[in-house]
Amino acid sequence: MKVDERVCNALVLFGMLALPLWALAQDEPFTITLVTRAVILALAAVGLNIVLGFGGMVSFGHAMFFGIGGYAMGILAYHAQTYMPLDLGLFTFEGTKSMPVIWLVAMVVSAMIALLVGLLSLRTSGVYFIMITLAFGQMFFYFAISWAAYGGEDGLSIYVRNDFPGLNTLVPIQFFGVCFAILCVVLFLVARLRASPFGLALNAARQSGVRVETMGLDPMRIKLVAFILSGAITGLAGALFADLNRFVSPSMFSWQLSGELIVLIIIGGVGRLMGPVIGACVFVALEHALGGLTDFWHIYLGVILLCIVLFARGGLIGLLTGKESAHV
Amino acid sequence: MSDAVLATQNLVKTFGALKATDDVSIDLRPGEIHAVIGPNGAGKSTLIQQICGGLKPDAGRVFLNGQDVSHHDTRARAQAGLGRTFQVSALCMEDTVLENAVLGAIGANRAVWRFWASALKTRELTDRAKAALERVGLSEHHQTRCGNLSHGERRQLEVGIALTLSPRAFIMDEPMAGLGAGGSKKLTELLDGMRAQAPILLVEHDMDAVFALADRISVLVYGKIIASGSIDDIKNSDVVREAYLGQEA
Ligand SMILES: Nc1ncnc2c1ncn2[C@@H]1O[C@H](COP(=O)(O)OP(=O)(O)OP(=O)(O)O)[C@@H](O)[C@H]1O
Ligand SMILES: [Mg+2]
């Protein structure tokens, strides 16, 4: 049975919306939290997919942006909750509990770091690019561990979830609604991006840098912009993730997380709009179903990954739609 | 030299002990097809690379419309008006023919920093792309993936993409390579019409095509231009016969 990709995409989003509503009716808040987790991981992977899928750059350091988003939230909320303004000399900084402000900061800081990391790493490709991005990710990881002011190794707890105007974000379904709405908006924007002249050029730069240069375009700059947009989206996801757990720790910077983001994109479908979303759903479902049974549930994830790499190059969305590649 | 669209001045390029380009000065004048011929390994592609910015010469300069572009990279030279085709097709194989051509239109219109409107629904881009594809006879293939094109169609597409740029000069590295007689003839007719739009520096092994098209021929052997002139000059040149044409006979 082959499903049209758009129908498939709509069904996945519908399912992601329907499950928490059903859980609400059944009074099972834990399920809502679980789906929220999938939504946020999906958002992080949608960001990575711009680089990995559209641009063909295997960033093994995207947890860096996830962590930056997380710490942006953690630091801003920490100063607000402790009423300890941070004295930065020129001005004091009070912190904030406002989600929109936190998101903005998370995205701007992530974008700036992405600019720097991109400038330094995009000259390389293949294994070297993987290694450089991994190294940057690890730098942030160790920096967070040693940053005692914000909890060091133990991380930072935020006691009350941050505010969104007009909502009570402590109610699981309301926080889910916020995250799901963001995911939908970002997916819409990314869909536009992919079809735009920029998206077409990025896709071309993945296939042949020489071709793009010969057209008078700069593949490096195109990839850099993609890297920045990607970092900002993953950073936003990090801020939401921290708010979901009301906790940030260096593990948000871990290379395992970078790896998991790559894995779930491969499972869902590399370079497909909804690939990361499907991958995140499968990932969270497995983690939940098998994680309770065995500590070694990653083995099953590995088996699935292997099967997909060997037998279904287009990922799950490729299997569902019968089309191995993103292109029509 | 002053009215030349494109000119090189004393280009030199060595690979270790090998002099791949040995003091090459050639030019390309408005409206002409200037063919560069020479045996395998003579340094033709190396010369083209230096003209287009892919290889940095050890010495010498490149001028485009009288402007020194020696220090421009590939991208800047393309923007300055070089439209290049590759000896080995460099296309986006996963993309459709139309998408490949639209990429050229994006380059020509400097439209790459647009993130919102769909590229394939932007008339200004697709019109330009489709017009170029029509000229090279690929109108039927807009939706065909490049990877599924025949070898000959890929060569046509290479030329088509160069056309989308509306360049000041075409630089073509063996566009006929691997084409059958029919394909060569069609492409020859196409190039014949293109020279009015912009002159062509044509590297080509297919001597029928060269003799049918060239206004001037330069012969490159071991990185050196050993002769340059009209078709008859070259046909009657002892140096050339000895160094090059003789080898094939
Ligand atoms: N990057 C390189 N490093 C070392 N040697 C090279 C390099 N590129 C080309 N050469 C050598 O320079 C010489 C000229 O090569 P080039 O590709 O320019 O020849 P050509 O005239 O285009 O030949 P063909 O007709 O086969 O396309 C050859 O001997 C080739 O082996
Ligand atoms: Mg060659």
Automatic annotation (TrEMBL), chain A:
Coiled coil: none annotated. This is Amino acid/amide ABC transporter membrane protein 2 (HAAT family). It comes from the Bacteria. It is a multi-pass membrane protein. One of its GO terms (molecular function) is branched-chain amino acid transmembrane transporter activity. InterPro entries: ABC_transp_permease, LivM-like. Keywords: Cell membrane, Membrane, Transmembrane, Transmembrane helix. Pfam families: BPD_transp_2. The keyword ATP-binding does not apply. PANTHER family: ABC TRANSPORTER ATP-BINDING PROTEIN (PTHR30482:SF17), HIGH-AFFINITY BRANCHED-CHAIN AMINO ACID TRANSPORT SYSTEM PERMEASE (PTHR30482). Its main location: membrane. It is found in: Cell membrane. The chain crosses the membrane at residues 35-56, 63-81, 101-120, 127-150, 170-191, 224-242, 262-286, 298-320. One of its GO terms (cellular component) is plasma membrane.
Automatic annotation (TrEMBL), chain B:
This is Amino acid/amide ABC transporter ATP-binding protein 1 (HAAT family). The keyword Translocase does not apply. SUPFAM superfamilies: P-loop containing nucleoside triphosphate hydrolases (SSF52540). PANTHER family: ABC TRANSPORTER ATP-BINDING PROTEIN (PTHR45772:SF2), CONSERVED COMPONENT OF ABC TRANSPORTER FOR NATURAL AMINO ACIDS-RELATED (PTHR45772). One of its GO terms (cellular component) is plasma membrane. InterPro entries: AAA+_ATPase, ABC_AA/LPS_Transport, ABC_transporter-like_ATP-bd, P-loop_NTPase. The lineage of its organism: Bacteria, Pseudomonadati, Pseudomonadota, Alphaproteobacteria, Rhodobacterales. GO terms for molecular function: ATP binding; ATP hydrolysis activity. It comes from Yoonia sediminilitoris. Residues 6-247 form the ABC transporter domain. SMART domains: AAA (SM00382). Keywords: ATP-binding, Nucleotide-binding, Transport.
